[in-house]
Design brief:
alpha+beta; Jelly Rolls; Serine Threonine Protein Phosphatase 5, Tetratricopeptide repeat; 11 strands; rod-shaped
């Protein structure tokens, strides 16, 4: 290709054309430009064909996926080693009380509490204060046992039973034998294997009681009557000493009451005839006469005073009272006795 200019120059010698060197140079440059363009076009076309072939080959080739990993089968874990636990010791049951006949009271719940009211002589009594108490009594007790829980009273004829007190209610269970239960005036039996509740679940609570009116202050007349009745009950029960205080209270606190002379005269009789104290009797008879000098008891009070002083060994006082009687009551029904005391 390098000899092209020479050939063109030779050809120009045979052709009679208007061809100048400048024109030849321009033609030569144009040819070189076109040659470079064709070379670039061929290069680009070859590259495009190669890319198309590669793309087609990629699409037509079968897809290959990476093989999934095969999961290994897990080996079974060895069984756990179980160490047997040592058996826990059974909790110790709290003993609440032991009675003289061998009856044992144990706690059947937390917070259980009992009070031994009596454990001597011919009977025993236990009060359940709170919680559940379990009783273990002798099969043949030597004395009766009573259990109290609130307003429930239980007579025991069983060797094993329990009494529980919760929220004002009492639950009774009999393991054997019979329990005789008294509640609000009603009596019932709880036999072996049975449980009873007091008050019963279906019991209807009584309406609340109306507030009691404050006690009315008793009048002096009523208080004297109360004191005299108290003295009469004491004397009727052969409790003469208990009659002294109410009788003395009437004489001391209510001397203006018309029954005061009678109270003083009765007090003298108690001292002289029942308690054997003539000096106290003489003072009481003198007080009866002073409260009512002209009353219906005055004559007898003076005679009994003389008698009391005589029995007390006070001869001078006895003679004075006897002579006073004879002067006041010359026809009295005790004249003969007063003359003897007066020494006439």
């Amino acid at each position: 290709m390098n000899d092209l200019p020479d050939k063109l120059g030779e050809a120009l010698g045979h052709v009679d054309v208007d061809w100048t060197p400048e024109r030849a140079d321009r033609t030569w440059r144009g040819l070189r430009v076109r040659r470079r363009r064709r070379a670039v076009a061929r290069t680009i076309g070859a590259a495009a064909c190669a890319a198309a072939v590669a793309m087609a080959a990629y699409r037509l080739a079968p897809s290959r996926r990476a093989p999934e990993p095969v999961a290994r089968r897990a080996e079974p874990a060895p069984p756990p080693v179980v160490t047997p636990l040592a058996p826990e010791p059974s909790p110790t049951v709290e003993s609440l009380a032991t009675l003289g006949d061998g009856t044992v009271v144990q706690a059947g719940s937390d917070g259980a509490a009992v009070e031994v009211v009596r454990d001597a002589g011919d009977r025993a009594e236990v009060r359940v204060v709170a919680g559940k108490a379990v009783f273990h009594a002798p099969r043949r007790p030597q004395r009766p046992l009573q259990v109290v829980s609130g307003d429930v009273r239980i007579a025991v004829y069983a060797a094993e039973f329990s009494v529980a007190r919760y929220d004002g209610a009492t639950e009774v269970w009999a393991g054997d034998g019979v329990l005789e239960v008294e509640w609000r005036g009603q009596r019932t039996q709880v036999r072996a294997g049975d449980t009873a509740r007091f008050p019963p679940p279906d019991a209807v609570d009584a309406p609340p009681a109306r507030a009691a009116a404050p006690p009315r202050e008793r009048s002096p007349r009523e208080r004297v009557a109360d004191l005299l009745r108290e003295a009469d009950r004491a004397r009727a029960g052969r409790r003469s000493r208990a009659a002294v205080d109410p009788l003395a209270a009437v004489v001391r606190d209510y001397p203006r009451d018309p029954r005061a002379p009678l109270a003083a005269f009765t007090l003298g009789r108690v001292w002289l005839d029942e308690l054997g104290d003539p000096r106290e009797a003489a003072h009481a008879f003198a007080r009866a006469r002073a409260l009512a000098p002209d009353g219906p008891l005055a004559e007898d009070a003076l005679a009994r005073e003389a008698e009391a002083w005589a029995r007390a060994g006070e001869a001078a006082r006895a003679r004075d009272r006897a002579r006073d009687y004879l002067r006041r009551y010359p026809n009295g029904h005790r004249v003969r006795e007063m003359r003897r005391i007066a020494g006439e």
